Amino acid sequence: MCGRYTLASKVSDLRDLIDFHDDSLPDDFAARFNIAPTQDVLILRQEKVHHRPMPVMVRWGLVPFWADDPKIGNRMINARSETVVEKPAFRAALKYRRCLIPADGFYEWHRSVDSKTKTPYWIHRPDRKPFAIAGLWESWNKSGAGPLETCTILTTGPNALMGLIHDRMPVILQQKDFDRWLSAPPDQAASLAELLVPAPDDFLEAWPVSTKVNSPALDRPDLIDPIDESRLG
DNA sequence: CCAGACGTTGTT
DNA sequence: GTCTGG
DNA sequence: CCAGACGTTGTT
DNA sequence: GTCTGG
C-alpha cells in the first residue's frame, strides 16, 4: 500500500519527468518529506484545451461524488488496481478522471516476524529523481461550500525489492505511458489495466529510516536519512 | 419495490 | 450514481 | 500510513 | 476495538 510519501524535487526535475502546462510553480515548490493522507497534494491532470498535464493541489483521500459524508475519503487513500475497474467508489474516476501524482520517494513499514516492531523504509530511485504514481481524482459538491477535489493512489502487488518489505506498492507509471494514462477515452479505460503493474525490479532502492516519520505532524529533510548502512536494491 | 452499501490494510 | 440484498 | 481519540445512559 | 484526523 502507500500511505506516506515525499516530494522534494526541484521543479526543473519535475518538468524533465512530465511536460506539464503551467509554469507557475516556484523552484522551491513545497519540499515535502512526510506527505500524509488528508493533506493537499500536487497532482497533474489532463488540461483539455492544451492537451497537456496541468498541476493542481487536491486533498489526498478520494471522496466519491455520490458520498453523503466526506469523511469516507479518510479510508480511500488507495485503490487496488486489480479491482478498480468495477469498484463503485472508483470506476467512474478511472474512466474520466485519471491523474499523475509526482513523488520522489514513499514510505512503507516493514513488520518484524513477531509483528512487534515496524520499521519504516524510504523507497526511492537510486538517482533520487522524481517518478509518477498513477492516481484518480474526484470532485465532491455536496457541501454547499464549493467543490472538494480529492485523489487516490493506485496500488499493485510488490516487485522483487518491495516484496522484502511489504506486499503492496504504488503503481509507478513509465514515462512513455503518461500520455496514454491521461488521455485514453472513457470506453478504453479498462484496457489501462495493463499499465497497472509493479515497477521493474531495478527501478527503486530502499533503506530504513527513523520512526520519527511515523508522526504525520513531522516534516523535515532528515526523515529520509538512513539509520544504518543497510540498503535494499 | 426500497434500503443500504459503496474501501483498503492488517490483524486476529 | 449504481448495484446488491431483502 | 500512524497517532490519537473515543461519551452517555444506565447500571455496577 | 474502531474511527477520525493529519
- Secondary-structure element pattern, one letter each: EHEEEEHEEEEEEEHE
Q: What is the helical fraction, as a range of percent?
A: under 10%
Count of discrete alpha- or pi-helical segments spanning 4 or more residues: 3
Q: What is the 3D shape?
A: globular
**CATH topology description:** hypothetical protein yedk fold
- Annotated CATH architecture: Alpha-Beta Complex
- Spatially, the strands of the biggest sheet line up as 2-1-7-8-13
Give the CATH level 1 class: Alpha Beta
Note the main sheet: 5 strands, antiparallel
* Class per helix and strand makeup: mainly beta
Q: What's the number of domains?
A: 1
- Measured between the Cα atoms of the first and last residue, the distance is 19 Å
Low-pLDDT parts are none
Description of the molecule:
By secondary structure, the protein is mostly beta strands. It has a single domain, classed as hypothetical protein yedk fold (Alpha-Beta Complex). The chain is 8% helix and 32% strand. It has 3 helices and 13 strands. The strands form 2 sheets. A 5-stranded antiparallel beta sheet has the order 2-1-7-8-13, with no helix packed on it. Strands 3-4-10-9-6 form a 5-stranded mixed β-barrel. A hairpin with a 4-residue loop joins strand 3 and strand 4. It is globular and about 50 Å long. It starts with a strand and ends in a 25-residue tail after the last strand. It binds 4 DNA strands through strand 5 and strand 7.
